[in-house]
Each structure stands twice: as C-alpha cells, then as structure tokens.
Amino acid sequence: MSSTTQALAVPPTMRAWVRPRRGPARSALELATGYPTPAVPTGSSSDVLIRVSYVSLQFSTEMLMKILPNLPFTRTWVPEIELSGEVVAAGKGAPAEVRDLGSHVVAFQNIPSAVVMGHGVLAEYVRLPGCQVAHIDAAVDMASASGITGSGSTALKMVRTAGVREGHTVLVNGASGSVGSVLVQLCKLRGAKVVGVASGGNEAMVRGLGVDEFIDYRKHDPLPAYLARQYGDKPFDFLLDCVGTQALFVNSPAYLKVKGAVINIGMLEGICVSARNALLNSLLPTWLGGVPRRYIMFSTPPSRDDAVYLARLIEEGRVRIPVDSVFDIEDAVRAYERIATKRARGKVVVKVHGG
Question: Which of 3, 9, 213, 278 could form an S-S bond across to 297 if both were Cys, CB 3.0 to 4.6 Å?
Fold first, then answer.
C-alpha cells in the first residue's frame, strides 16, 4: 500500500490552546485536553495531517486576542500560524514531497483561517492544504525550522521590495528580533553593507549574524539624531524597520537617500496608531508637512514558495533562524509573556511533540 493512502496512528482527541474569551494571553487562553483531532485526509484530497513538533509564536497574536470580538464561531479560536512537524497522513492530491509518512515539514495556516476563523496551529495535530506545507531536511533543527514561514517570508519580502543588492547600505532596526535577525542575513547574502540596531546586550548576537556596524539604540538616544550625525554624509539606501519607530521615518531625510525608502513591518505603538501613521506617511504631501521620502508598509502572508526557498538556504547553512527560547506546550502563556517583554532574541517557540 502506498504512503499516500496510509496513516500513522492518530488519537481521536488532542491538546490545543483555545481562546474562549477576549483579553491578554494569561486570562484569555485555556489548554483544552479533549479537542477533536482533525480527520485523516483520504482519497484525492490535497490535505496533509501533521503531528506538530514546534510552533513559533507571533508578536501580534496577543494584540489580536485583545481586540478580536468573542463570537460564537470563535470561542474555540486556536492561535498561531507557523509550525514544524511530521507527516502522519496525506491525500493523494498532496504534493509528492510531503506525502511520505514521517517526513519533516514546515507549514503555515493562511491569515483568514487563522485570524478570522481561529483555525490556528497551536495544537498537537493540524490538517492543512498541501500548498501550505514544505519539506525540510531531517537534519535541520525543528525548533528553528518552525520560524521559516512567518519571520522568513516577512524578511524575504522586505529584501525583495527594497531590491537590496551589492553596493547598497541598509539599516536594520530591530536586528536581534525574529524578523530582523533573518533580514540581516538575507541582506548580507545579497552583498549589502548592513548596519544593525538593537540593545547593547544583543550586540554579540547581532554581530554574529554578520552586520558590518552595530548601533546600541539605548546608548545613542535619540536614535535619529545619532544617525544624522554619523550617516548624514553617507546616507542609507534603505531603512528596514522591524520595530515601527515613527521618528525613524519622520527624521529620515537627514540620513536616507532621496531615492531611498523606509520599509516598515513593526507596530511598536500599537495597531491603531501604526495604521494611522502608515496612512499619513504614505499619502500626506510634503506641502502639508509630509516627509519627502518613500514609506512602505505591507502585510506579509506566508507563501509555500518562500518557505521552500528559505528551507534550501537553511539546509545549505547560509541562513539560520535564531531561537530565543523554547517552552513546553503547557507553558505557552509564559512564552507569550516572553514575547511581550520585547527583549526576545529571535523566535519564541512552543514545543508540542519536539524531541
């Protein structure tokens, strides 16, 4: 019998974190122990059933848990979008490279299903379409691999949007974070000079990622004034902001080339303020006080093609996904509290079935 019609033993129920009420992680989340396990895909289905190894948490998840209404269809709202795991079953329509039982994979839930419907992946088993699953070499650390599709896809889109290439000088604000740490490496792979910004305690880590220059934002506060003094005569081609520092854009003419751009994916000041800033930064004309530099902010839904590309870079040892900390599934609330400190160096990960 072929592997596409077989399935490893799957229990009828599983553990999954659910959000039965609105609020911060500590008060909103509960660990359900009798949550129904997804059905095994059969026949010509393109779905893959995955035994979850690790789940990488997103900084924005707790913000969503606080603002999304508690509706009847979201009372079993399961958070998170990206994971690593092993294939336990797959339909015949799934991609060939993710049909073999026991194969190591990385995968993601799409944003509408995860955020709107609450069909997230912080659970012991997840069933996903094969177009959201990518094979990963068994030698790759699965905790690290769980962050490929979220942070990796975001960093890759920032690099591609900017068109970073050899000869460019770029500033990465938040270089020690989950996105920034990957972004530094991708910029270096393209031959750019990278200046990384983080707190002084993370200097060794950021330098280990390959930055050419390091800036401790606590030592050089306010940061825009320091950048104007140090880089006013050698301005950056791009400012890649993983934090969401509005002052970085407002003062950018002092250290950013006229044809450059600020590309921001951070929401340091919260969703509402960040959305307002993004609108004004993008549309306000200079004669009304707008900043004479381009500002780009975009959503970054994961994609399988990006996951496949990044997985290859990781397998070749050219990129790594730094992991700040790993928490057992029972301690997921503590993992969210770690993210909330804004001091995480790389991904915060929850171990579900990891070895």
Answer: 278
Apex 137 CA angle, 352 and 107, nearest 5:
50
Q: SS3 for 190? A: coil
Note whether 125 and 50 are within 8 A (CB): yes
Measure the CA–CA gap between 88 and 168, rounded to whole angstroms: 45
How much is the pTM? 0.90
Q: Among candidates 223, 264, 221, 260, which has minimal Cα distance to 242?
A: 264
Secondary structure (DSSP) of 318-334: S----EEEEEEGGGHHH
Q: Using CA atoms, how far apart are residues 310 and 306, in angstroms rounded to an integer? A: 6
Say which residues have a Cβ less than 8 Å from residue 250's Cβ, sequence separation at least 6.
224, 291
Ranges of each domain in the chain: 13-147+321-351, 151-297
Four-residue CA torsion sign, 193, 197, 198, 201: positive
Give yes or no for a contact between 43 and 92, defined as CB atoms under 8 angstroms apart.
yes
CATH topology agreement for domains 13-147+321-351 and 151-297: no
Q: Between 304-315 and 153-162, two packed helices, what is the crossing angle to 10 degrees?
A: 100
Average pLDDT, the chain: 91
Q: What is the pLDDT of residue 315?
A: 93
Going by their DSSP bridges, the two strands 347-351 and 323-328 should be labelled as parallel
CATH class belonging to 13-147+321-351: alpha beta
Single-letter amino acid code for the residue at 77: W
Q: Which two tokens stand for residue 57?
A: 């948490």
Examine the pLDDT at 272 and tell me if it is beyond 80.
no
- Place 4 in a pLDDT band, splitting at 50, 70 and 90: very low
130-180 residue pLDDT tens: 999 999 999 999 999 999 988 899 999 999 999 999 999 999 999 999 999
Fold of 151-297: Rossmann fold (3.40.50)
Taking the C-alpha atoms of residue 155 and residue 257, their distance in angstroms, rounded to an integer, is 22
At 138 the three-state DSSP class reads coil
